[in-house]
Each structure stands twice: as C-alpha cells, then as structure tokens.
Amino acid sequence: MRVSWLRALLLTAPIGLVALAVVVPAAAQDEPPAVTEMVRSQNNLKQIALAAHNFESANGKLPSNVADKDGKPLLSWRVAILPYIEEEELYKQFKLDEPWDSDTNKKLIEKLPKVYAPIRVKAKAGETFYQGFAGSGALFGGKAQVAITEITDGTSQTVMVVEAGEPVVWTKPTDLPFDAQKPLPKLGGMFDGAFHVALCDGSVRRVRRNFDPDEFKKTVTIAGGEIADSKKLWK
C-alpha cells in the first residue's frame, strides 16, 4: 500500500511539530465567521486523524473503544488517543478498567479536550460531534482493532471520523450506528447540515449538501470492495 504524505510526515516529525502545521491559514482568517469556523473543524479532524495514525504506528492497530476482558466497551476511542493529542496527563487520570460513567471517570467528562469541542453550536458540557461509524463493515464495527492494511477499500476512500448530527459525551463508547440497508444517521450538526469527514489517509474533505447517500455508504465500509464516486460526494 502506498504511504500517504500525511503518514510519512507523521512517522518522521514529533507531534508537537506536526501540530504546528495544523493551523488556520492566513487567507482564511479574513473569511466570514462561518468559513473560519469550518476551517477550525477541519483542523480538529486533521489532528484527530494524525493522532489515530500515531496510535497505529505505536500499537500496530488503529484505535478502538477501550474494552474490558470480555470485550464490553468501557471508554471511547477518543480517550484512547489522548496521549497522541498532547493530553497524556488527562489520559493518566482515567481508570481504564472502569466504564465512562464510573465515579472516577465521570468527573473527567468536563475536561473535554479543545480538539473535540463543538464549534458554532452549543452542546451539553463534555459533548462532542466528532464520531466514527459503528456497524457491520465499518471502522468501529467490531470488537477487534483494525490495522491500516486491513482497509482494503483504500485509506483515501474510507471514512475515519465525521461531524455527526447529534453530540455524544466524548468519553462514552458511542458512535454513529451504521447499517448499509438503512438510511444514514443524521450528519452535520455543527454547520446546518454541511459537514466534513476525516478519511483514513488523514485527509479531510467537505461533503456536498446534495451528496448521494448510497455513494457515501461505500466510504463507511473498510473492505466492502466498492469505490465511491467522488464527484457525488466531495465539494
């Protein structure tokens, strides 16, 4: 599999240096508020994708929900990547063998990292719109973690994280339910229906408002053997 420019950067640069590259471009700073807010969210998605790649580099697998010995999810993958978004001290405060709403872990919900924070819209304290898809064939569809090499549909063709339609508690092991035979869940809660996705190669794309749902479903599965028509999806 060809290594993307992002992955090459990820493997050769310290995360602090990489983070410096993920900033609002100067040209965008003079744009209307809605545009600059979208750029901020794009940068958040880039940082999340970078963290997931760093996690994979260190552990051999992409992040998944933290589970107990029986496979029961306890904490979200968003907690698992904390050390890779420069939040290692917060990560150390979690009891990884306890659920998200245990007495200890519940106190940490309010410590929502900035990279997960809602943009433009309000949500309850500790909630985020950044979610993956959970379901058959999706990246977060099973109990086992997924390696980059298992994304046979292509990392540039597969969704990692999306701006969901409704927020969830960031530590809770909850993501968007996916069933290829059913309508997609609500998306685009931060920007009046418009939304962005981080793909598994680390790139971030803005989705057309009139996107084709059936084409989008092809980007959710990691090994479905389908190639989505990008002209019907990306703006």
Automatic annotation (TrEMBL):
Residues 41-114 form the DUF1559 domain. The keyword Cytoplasm does not apply. InterPro entries: DUF1559 (IPR011453). The keyword Signal applies. Keywords: Signal. Residues 1-28 form the signal peptide. Pfam families: SBP_bac_10. This is DUF1559 domain-containing protein.
